[in-house]
Specification:
Length: about 350
């Protein structure tokens, strides 16, 4: 296997690999293989919603001329070792490697096997902003919602993370590109390429619009950042204020929380079968889309440009955070909301209710 090799673990990563491939040859017809060839290796997650979305995204990628290999890297004892052995040769022969999540332990282990000559990092959400900042400051790679101290597992994997960080940085004989729709400051020696969601707009839509609003869910409760009771109260208030009828669930939201959202707010829960950028572009979609701080406040305005859809972002108030949330959480979430596109409305703590 030669040419270009991409590793993805989420539907959004695969979508952005397709967007990146489109920028390499924007006039390429649908189904025409890119040159040089691009092979996408899916390191499959275990949760059913992510797997279902990835299966559908994989078919879209095949339809667009990419080769897709599905790897069950998490399928029990020995699966990771077998995956690493099988990919060592292709990694060494690839002229470019594309990755979607530089914080991933699986990707970091792969990076211990080779030093890529040309490396591209595509968006996997707002973590790209943190990756660029940490790379520029020379810090170890830590997800923004994690606590700063190292646990036993992190201590064991520290040498892997350290080597991966070095191999994610530009060096003699290695170029690094970040392909992003987010406002990132380019670390020294790193090329930042704009992701304008041209492939999405070219392949889908424009959508029909409903008369009301849609809410976009978040996994901030599941990641231990936002208090569950606060979240439910805020969602209910947003639904009443904006006349929303649908709630687009994040793929990592728990069934228990989604049930509570439906019962307490009356919202229809929608579990998207594709990333929200594609769902919105296909339509129907509300004339207003309200989201908590997340990648979609940067990506939806790009995917929906010219459609008349208005995107609004809800700023997270400090009192919504759990006591166990990372000290960086408030600043990071404020940064996402504050750097959203100028056409995005900012809802400043719309529910200053007495949470008790």
């Amino acid at each position: 296997m030669t040419g270009q090799l991409a590793f993805v673990e989420s539907p959004v990563q695969l979508l952005n690999v397709l967007e990146w491939a489109h920028t390499q040859a924007p006039d390429r017809a649908p189904g025409e293989p890119p040159a040089p060839a691009l092979t996408v290796v899916v390191l499959s997650p275990t949760d059913p919603m992510s797997r279902g979305q990835l299966r559908r995204m994989a078919q879209l990628a095949r339809d667009d001329g990419l080769t897709v290999l599905w790897q069950e890297a998490r399928a029990g004892r020995g699966a990771l070792a077998r995956t690493l052995r099988g990919l060592a040769g292709p990694l060494r022969s690839a002229e470019r490697v594309v990755i979607g999540d530089p914080f991933s332990r699986y990707v970091q282990l792969l990076l211990t096997l080779f030093a890529p000559r040309r490396l591209t990092v595509v968006d996997d959400g707002t973590a790209t902003m943190e990756f660029a900042a940490q790379l520029g400051r020379g810090e170890r790679l830590v997800r923004w919602h994690r606590k700063g101290s190292l646990g036993p597992r992190e201590l064991v994997l520290a040498p892997v993370t350290s080597m991966a960080r070095r191999r994610l940085a530009p060096a003699r004989g290695r170029t690094v590109e970040i392909f992003t729709s987010l406002p990132v400051e380019a670390p020294e020696g790193v090329e930042v390429t704009r992701n304008a969601y041209a492939w999405t707009r070219d392949r889908f839509g424009p959508p029909s619009l409903t008369g009301g609003a849609d809410l976009v869910g978040t996994s901030l409760v599941e990641t231990g950042v936002v208090d569950s009771a606060h979240y439910l109260r805020v969602v209910g208030e947003l639904a009443r204020t904006h006349g929303a009828t649908r709630y687009f669930a994040h793929r990592r939201e728990s069934s228990e929380k989604l049930h509570a959202v439906a019962v307490e707010t009356g919202l229809q829960i929608v579990r998207p079968d594709l990333p929200l950028e594609l769902i919105a572009r296909r339509g129907p979609i509300g004339r207003t889309v309200v989201s908590f701080p997340s990648t979609v406040v940067h990506t939806l305005p790009l995917a929906l440009v010219g459609t008349g859809v208005k995107v609004a972002v809800v700023e997270v108030a400090p009192e919504w955070l759990r006591a166990t949330a990372s000290p960086r959480a408030q600043g990071f979430l404020s940064g996402i909301a504050g750097t959203a596109a100028h056409e995005v409305d900012r809802l400043t703590h719309p529910t200053r209710l007495e949470f008790g």
